[in-house]
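Structure (tokenized):
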């Protein structure tokens, strides 16, 4: 199987695209809004874009809008694991603070991939037969 056909590769491409678009949106929104508002709006739009990219491009699933209510759980898990890892990396291992977020992404990326796949690839429940 060639790289572009692999789900993991598509996940990395979608993540890079989402990051670039999210950053561009942040810069654009920051022209009109306070940086906190710009960050929040670009982050929320990034979740929606990630949902669409991961549904259609990465996992090749139809868009099921009910799942967007569950999908942000991926980001809560990623944040929690990342924060824990940053604390361990800096607070316990005494590593440089500047490298901590990069290391946290590397650690949380597999969780993000598998959680996204679980949420987006799960089969919807069939209606009960009477």
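Design, position by position:
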């Amino acid at each position: 199987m060639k790289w572009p056909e692999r789900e993991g590769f598509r996940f990395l491409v979608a993540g890079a695209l989402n990051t670039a678009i999210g950053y561009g949106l942040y810069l654009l929104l920051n022209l009109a809004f306070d940086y906190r508002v710009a960050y929040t709006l670009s982050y929320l739009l990034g979740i929606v874009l990630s949902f669409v990219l991961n549904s259609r491009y990465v996992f090749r699933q139809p868009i099921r809008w009910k799942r967007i209510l569950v999908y942000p759980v991926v980001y809560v898990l990623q944040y929690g694991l990342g924060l824990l890892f940053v604390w361990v990396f800096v607070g316990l291992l005494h590593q440089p603070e500047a490298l901590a977020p990069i290391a946290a992404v590397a650690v949380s990326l597999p969780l993000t991939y598998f959680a996204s796949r679980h949420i987006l690839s799960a089969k919807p429940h069939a209606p009960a037969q009477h």
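Reviewer-requested clarification: Residues 35-58 form the longest helix (24 residues). The CA atoms of residues 110 and 117 lie 11 Å apart.
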